[in-house]
Amino acid sequence: MSFFTYKGYPLVRKDKELYFGNMYDEYVVWMQIQETRKLQDLDVASKIKIYLMRTDEKLNPMEAIVKTGERESLYDALDLAKAWLDRAERETA
Question: Which long-range contacts (CB under 8 A, 24 or more apart) does 55-63 make?
Fold first, then answer.
């Protein structure tokens, strides 16, 4: 199966949740759209909660969360998520 990618990482969205990164890597980023605003005819994310999580299935979800953050645009949230994943990749290499 092929996924949409953004800046080299898979990006999957279902409703107001997004997953960014490879599930087979040690970390993935989970994002929740908490608020939206109208921009012409579109609903645009205006508050996004971001979680850097370990992908180890043995951990409960609360133990898997390593970092959290919040941004006011999807672009800023993805920018932070990419930085977290790049850093995690360098540290585990």
Answer: 55/23, 55/24, 55/25, 55/26, 55/27, 55/28, 56/26
